[in-house]
Structure formats: C-alpha cells, structure tokens
Design a protein that fits this description.
Blueprint lengths: L1 E2 L24 E2 L5 E2 L3 E2 L4 H7 L8 E2 L5 H8 L12 H20 L36 E9 L9 H22 L5 E5 L2 H13 L5 H4 L14 E5 H4 L4 E8 L9 H4 L2 H8 L2 E9 L1 H4 L9 H16 L1 E8 L6
Parallel strand pairs: 1-8, 4-5, 6-10, 6-11, 7-8, 7-9, 9-10
Antiparallel strand pairs: 2-3
Length: about 325
C-alpha cells in the first residue's frame, strides 16, 4: 500500500523560516535565536550521519546502527532469471533485483559485480559503541546508494520529454519497492519527490502493478502469499519533512530537454531534507544532466552549494547505471 502523510517525529522544524530547515541536525534555538547544534543523532546510521554532517560545523555521533537482518534479507534475493527478458518492465525488475542483491553482498563483504565502489570511502571504524559488534549488526554498514538513470528513445531521439522521463524514473522506483517489500515487508519506504508530477507518476506505476509478476518469475518469491507489506509513502519532500523511514528513494533526475529545472533540484536544503529521512538506506536516482551540469549553472552560489552536497553523496555511494527504453514501456 502507499499513503501520503506528513507525519511528525519530534524534530526542530520551526527553527527556520525556510520551507526546508536542516532538521537532520536536531538543533534548538534559544530565546536570543542562537542556534545550538545537537551532535547526537538517533535516526541516522554512521555513514549517513557522516555524510549529512558535512554541511554542519560539528560532526554527528550516530546512536543507531544498521541491523544485520537487512543485509541477510536482501541477500536471499535469488539470482536473476530475466537476463534474456524481452519485456522492458522485466528488464527493469532484473536491474532492481541485481542492484539490491549487490548492496547486500557489499554489506556482507561478499564479491559482487553489479555496483561500482564509492570514489570516497566513508566507512570508518566506530569503536565507541559495543553494539557495533553484536550479532544483530551488519558487519559492513551501507546506507548511501546511487542509480544513474538514462532514458532512451528512437522516436524522440535525444529529446526525451520530461513527462516520459518521469514515467521511466517511476518504473525503476516501483521495481525497487516491489523487491524491498518482498524481502523486508516490515520496513517502511518513503519516495521523496521534488515535483508533484513525479509523485503522481510513482503512484500510477505502483497502481499499475507491472511488477506483481515477481512471484511468477521466482519460485522463492510470494508477493501474494499473505505477508503484510510495508507502508509506502510517496510524497513531495516538503510533506515528508519531519518524518522518517527505513528506506528512502529520492528522485533527482532530469532529461536533457529539461535542464532549466536544475536550479530547483540543486537546492541544498531540499536535498538534505530528502536524504536525511532515511534510517537504514537512501537510494538516490539521478541522471548525468544533474550529476554533471554545465559550468554556467553553478555560477549561482546557492546552486553551487547544492551541487557540492549532491556530489558529496555521489562520491560516498555505491552506484550503478540503468537504461530505460521509453518506447518499449508503451506509455
């Protein structure tokens, strides 16, 4: 199921007049409007906390670790049987399975070939907590993941429209949700969208149930087996502010035809609020147009700050690419 609810979880979101206060810092204001940053964070994992704290004066001391069961659950995803699939939806599903299975292998220190390692290693030894060595903790926490989306079309050549691109982005998102729900049905999922058109596209993709064929493709999978599915909240970033979920999928991709929207996407507070909703894992879907914008876009100081923050995420994330044939989706 999916819902749209803002949900509040005791954060200090009233600190700023901006629609995007940096509530990941859990700061508090005094009567003289002096902002005091609290460094203990009970939402973020060590690697998420280390990333988010790059824009604050003091580093966070995360009080939460990634449960080993997440890695073990995702590691039970069967090896793909759809590599020769002719349906574009099955190809997208194949990618989602391999991507999440690859993440589990990384967490469990097993070999994998589907994801590229981060340019910057953000994994540090956190010896301050004995809990890090308990049997319930993943031996290799991994909370930042990046998918670079390419949309292709023979009909539209190099001019894929924004609406078609968004529907492809939504199809990839729906496939990721289907696999997560199958193997981690108790974990809630947020889909954070900058625009309402993206929210509508993801909801439509979920309702279309293109990926309900999972149970037919894999004997081990039982999407209709009576297990309670996790709640999927698909909403704009503003409405998700103050909430949290185990998995957060952030949609920050654009086609070449719509790069005029870059300044809106590359707003640091918007990026920070979206990414910092995650308790266990943040998967960011982006595109070359956003990750490598024209130099002229970065002449605006605020946009440059947002891009620096986005690149900091990309440099710390395990990543993979996916190409979606717009024509084959029959949109």
């Amino acid at each position: 199921m999916y819902v749209s609810r803002p949900g509040q979880v005791g954060s200090s979101d009233t600190r700023s007049s901006s629609p995007f206060p940096d509530d990941a810092s859990d700061g508090a204001s005094s009567s003289q409007s002096t902002i005091v940053q609290l460094t203990e964070n009970f939402r973020l994992n060590p690697d998420l906390g280390e990333f988010v704290s790059t824009i604050y004066s003091k580093a966070f001391r995360p009080q939460k670790v990634q449960a080993r069961r997440i890695a073990l659950a995702l590691s039970s995803i069967p090896q793909s049987k759809t590599s020769q699939a002719t349906s574009e939806y099955l190809k997208i599903l194949d990618f989602a399975q391999r991507f999440l299975l690859g993440l589990s292998h990384i967490m469990l220190k097993r070999p994998q070939r589907d994801l590229s390692p981060p340019l910057l290693s953000n994994l540090k030894e956190h010896t301050h907590s004995n809990d890090l060595y308990s049997s319930d903790v993943a031996p290799h926490p991994l909370s930042l993941a990046l998918i670079q989306l390419y949309t292709i079309s023979r009909k539209h050549r190099d001019n894929v429209g924004y609406e078609l691109h968004v529907k492809a982005e939504a199809a990839v998102t729906a496939a990721l949700i289907a696999v997560i729900q199958e193997y981690l049905p108790g974990e809630d999922i947020f889909v954070a969208t900058p625009h309402r058109i993206q929210r509508q596209a993801v909801r439509a993709a979920l309702l279309a149930q293109h990926f309900e064929t999972l149970s037919e493709l894999f004997d081990e999978m039982t999407l209709d087996g009576g297990k309670k599915k996790s709640t999927v909240t698909v909403d704009t970033i503003e409405r998700l502010q103050g909430s949290e979920a185990a998995f957060v999928i952030c949609l920050f991709s654009l086609p070449q035809s719509h790069i005029t929207d870059l300044q809106f996407l590359l707003e640091r507070r918007r990026l920070n609020v979206a990414i910092s909703r995650a308790k266990s894992m943040c998967i960011l879907i982006s595109s070359n147009e956003v990750l490598r914008p024209a130099v002229g876009v970065l002449t605006d100081g605020e946009t440059a700050k947002g891009y620096t923050f986005l690149r900091a995420f990309a440099d710390r994330a395990w990543s993979s690419n996916v190409s979606v044939d717009i024509d084959a989706l029959n949109l």
